[in-house]
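pasting for ref
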Amino acid sequence: MVRNLPIGFDNFRDIRDQDRLYVDKTDMIPQIISGDAKVYLYTRPRRFGKSLNLSMLDAFFNIKYPKDNTWFDGLKVSDCKECDVYKNAYPIIYMDFKDLDASDFNEFTDKLRRKLSKLYGMYGYLEDSEQLDRVDRLDYESVLSRTADRSGIGYSLRNLSDMLCKHHGKKIIILIDEYDNPIHNAFGKPHHQEVLGVMRDILSSALKGNDSLAFGVVTGVMQIAKESLFSGLNNLRVNNVFSEDFDEMFGFTADEVKAIFEEYGHPEKFEEAREWYDGYRFGDADVYNPWSIINYISSGFVPKSYWLWEGNMRLISDAIGRNPRFISSVLAPLYNGETCRIQINERVTFSNIHLDYNLVSILVASGYFKAVFIKDSTYDITIVNKEVRDGWIEQILDDSMDPMGMNRISSAFLSGDPDAVRFELSDSLDRITDRKVMIDEGRYQSLVLGLLDCLKDTYFVRAEYAGGNGYADIVLIPRNGKGPSAVIELKNAAPGTDDGSMDAISRNALEQIVNRRYFSDLSGDIHLYGIATRQNDVFISHEKIYR
């Protein structure tokens, strides 16, 4: 019988316990043990096995698991006898920075405090440890109770590593997943620099000059430069998509894909998979997208775009939107199958993120472009494969040519889809405004009018439109009489208003349109929208009429 696929699994122990498909990457372990770095930073695109590899390292090194576990039986690392002394011999701090998207800095720190509290809670035995002093216990309690101040958050991983080292009498290992995720999520928002500062404090204190640290492994999508996230960390080994060591540790090689297809009974599908999911170049290795290969098999070997990108799409589209020439000079030729030769920077600088070399660097690191070294800092750039070309590059182009979502918002209003209107309007508010700025109805009216301006060639876009027994906030009227009309009434609510009240306010706005007959001069299909706003939150009541 073939093994079950690891769909939705990124935990090594679960995959091995359930005998699911696992492509052996355990020879990463002896490479780390024999290396001379104190901290390894691995940057690869999302869904290429970074989290799975970290959980594999945790299963091998973590002192809390029994040394006689069978997770590594038959795998490559079992042939490394020198590795036995390291097996399940270290206290480990395993921290991921996923799920920290926030609309402002207070929300970010609240979510981060909750994550850190959960992490500290995994080491409850420290509360009664005789090796810790009163100050240690105060530090522990402040993080556990979610009351730690900015300094306490910044030193949270460092303090925990010192406590674990004292308790166990041995140095510890720190594993950090998606270190750059909070920074990407905050890009373009007012609290971006504050998030950078917090992440700098956490990473530099935990990994720089930490006498309790045996070694650390950090993963992310990009290497962020000039923001001093790893300031003064001299013994940092950066391993990115251009690095030759560890080049086969992320993604599937051609031989691995062939073996998988043999196991699942369809070796003839290899050429189709190569066209769709190959094309990535990490160091000297050509690799396939593992997420796509596994979903391709799960879906009965049907080729399509499986690689869901939920990470820094906004960062990419916003950056491209600030450099429209990049679309015509780089993206469009690549989309048409051409190769672009360009100088790139392996590290990302947010202050100049829209420049060509930074944009290409982001798109290579994120898995959209393949880069082949020519000389100096010059590379030949192509789109990696059919999956990316047919799926996500089209989305990037669409988003970049409409960075504020004007076309999508206009289409939503005219289609009569209140859910789409709510989503697109909320998304645009998050993109281009600060929650603290949106404080009165007039500002919302001006912003919505601006977002609907793309309709001006085919629609009259009117504010304070005189109709019936009053004035509608916004009305859309087709210039040639063809197409639906729309009447929009906006009501603003205070920041603390609850969701139930917001629904009621939107219904009242809709009733105002109906009762005052703002649509009396219109004909045909007419969409009526009562919209309640609460900072960047949007609630909508909708009705369609025909006259």
